[in-house]
Each structure stands twice: as structure tokens, then as C-alpha cells.
Write a structure and sequence with these properties.
This protein has 202 residues and is α/β, with parallel strands linked by helices. The protein contains 5 helices and 9 strands; from the N terminus they run E-H-E-H-E-H-H-E-E-H-E-E-E-E. The strands form 2 sheets. It has a 6-stranded mixed β-sheet. The protein starts with a strand and ends in a 21-residue tail after the last strand. The structure holds flavin-adenine dinucleotide. The site of flavin-adenine dinucleotide (FAD) has 33 residues, from helix 1, helix 2 and strand 7.
């Protein structure tokens, strides 16, 4: 097994796998997953992906998102989400992802929660996350180390140069020039929740 890479990506959900997809083929990258690849929130996501239907809709998507966030949103993050979401969706479709369409081949948008118009793309009905996860796993060109829990970031002079991992009852370091943290949230620290069991701080 190798212990040094150009890039180590922590997490095999949509964030980690989409990061991997954006890397050049020549990059020596490794993806780490705490458990099985599908034990992530991406696999469990159902309803769909909110995205502005056209450029004119972007300000309304921003407004609806900020309203729904009731003052708790990071406005810069919302701006990026609403502006760059359509670009990522276009890339997914160009790579061959099939969102649900009507009989004429038009994308089917549905309405959810605080959205003021139909703006939710979905796949396989309510199996959107599962479809996206399989799609990104099929496109993955780098190895994944499963059952690997990152327990520490190795940091010197403010720079992260590796991770300490627990894998198959062994503890060791993996080094990389770039470390991408795509480990999801912390929802599974609660006693009752619908998150994947891997979604905790450690
Ligand atoms: C039941 C459910 C339904 C949802 N429905 C929707 C929906 O309809 N629409 C929507 O937009 N969003 C929905 N979400 C939210 C959505 O699933 C998440 O926002 C999204 O999938 C997060 O992706 P991610 O890649 O950041 O994290 P995840 O997909 O959760 O992936 C995290 C990855 O990090 C790994 N990891 C975590 N900690 C470590 C560690 N210490 N070491 C190594 N690896 C680690 C995990 O193993 C996993 O591979 C839903 C969530 C749930 C739970």
C-alpha cells in the first residue's frame, strides 16, 4: 500500500466524489471513506437538487434560500450555491447523468419546502441521492480506501500535509500535498436521526 499522494480526499459522498471528478487523470489521488462507499448522506438523499431554472431565476433562488435560512445562512455560500449550481448540473448532464424528464425530454422540476417555484430536479423519482452517488462512483478514476477513519489532520506551520487514519485495526499516516475535507456534517452524533452512521465529527 502507498502512503504518499498528490491529493487525499476525505469522504466519498457527492462532495468528495465530485472533487475527484474535477481532478486531472495524471493526479495521484486517494479517496478515503469511513465505512462502505454508500454509507453516506448522499446515498440516502431523496427529494432532489434545488437549482435555478435559468439566469433570471438565480436572484429568486438566492432570496428563497435566505428566507428559508431565517438569518442563519452564510450569504457568500448561498451566492456560490445559486450561481454555480446550474453549472454543476449542466456538467452532470454532459457526463451522462439522467435527471427525470417528461415525455418530450424536458427536465422535470418539482416544488419543495420554501421554494417559490418549481426548482427541484430529481432522479429515479425519490432516489436522487442514490442515483447521483452511483453515477459518481462509476466515474471515479482513483482508488478508494474503505473502512478508513481519519482521526487527525497532520499540520505543521499552518499547513496540512497528511492525515492519521484508523484502518482495519491499524493506525498509520497518509501524506499528500493537498488534503480535501469532504466529510459531510455531524448529524449522526444525535441519538435519533436519519443520517448515515458515518456522519459524525470523527
Ligand atoms: C435522509 C436524508 C435525505 C436527504 N435529502 C436531501 C434532498 O432531497 N436534497 C438535498 O439537497 N439534500 C438532501 N439531504 C442532504 C444531503 O444528503 C447532504 O447535504 C449531502 O449528501 C452531503 O454530501 P457530502 O458529500 O458533504 O457528505 P456525505 O454524503 O454525508 O459524505 C460524507 C463522507 O465522509 C466520510 N467521512 C466522514 N467522516 C470521516 C472520517 N473521520 N474519516 C473518513 N471519512 C469520513 C463518510 O464516510 C462519507 O463517505 C438528505 C440527507 C439525508 C440524511
Amino acid at each position: 500500500m502507498k502512503f504518499t499522494y498528490d491529493v487525499v480526499i476525505i469522504g466519498a459522498g457527492v462532495a468528495g466524489l465530485n472533487t475527484a471528478l474535477s481532478l486531472d487523470d495524471g493526479v495521484d489521488a486517494l479517496v478515503l471513506a469511513k465505512d462502505y462507499a454508500w454509507e453516506c448522506n448522499t446515498f440516502y438523499a431523496q427529494g432532489g437538487v434545488a437549482v435555478a431554472v435559468d439566469d433570471e431565476d438565480i436572484p429568486y433562488h438566492i432570496k428563497d434560500t435566505l428566507n428559508a435560512g431565517a438569518g442563519l445562512c452564510d450569504e457568500g455560500a448561498v451566492d456560490i450555491l445559486c450561481h454555480e449550481g446550474p453549472i454543476v448540473i449542466k456538467e452532470f448532464i454532459e457526463h451522462g447523468f439522467k435527471f427525470d424528464e417528461d415525455r418530450e425530454g424536458n427536465l422535470l422540476y418539482t416544488k419543495e419546502a420554501a421554494h417559490s417555484r418549481n426548482r427541484i430536479l430529481h432522479a429515479g423519482g425519490d432516489a436522487t441521492g442514490r442515483h447521483i452517488h452511483k453515477f459518481l462512483m462509476d466515474l471515479l478514476k482513483f482508488p478508494i480506501l474503505y473502512n478508513t477513519q481519519v482521526t487527525d489532520l497532520l499540520i505543521k506551520d499552518g499547513e496540512c500535509y497528511g492525515v492519521r487514519v484508523f484502518h482495519n485495526n491499524e493506525i498509520f499516516n497518509i501524506y499528500a500535498k493537498k488534503i480535501v475535507i469532504a466529510s459531510g456534517g455531524v448529524g449522526s452524533v444525535y441519538e435519533y436521526h436519519t443520517n448515515a452512521r458515518t456522519i459524525s465529527s470523527l
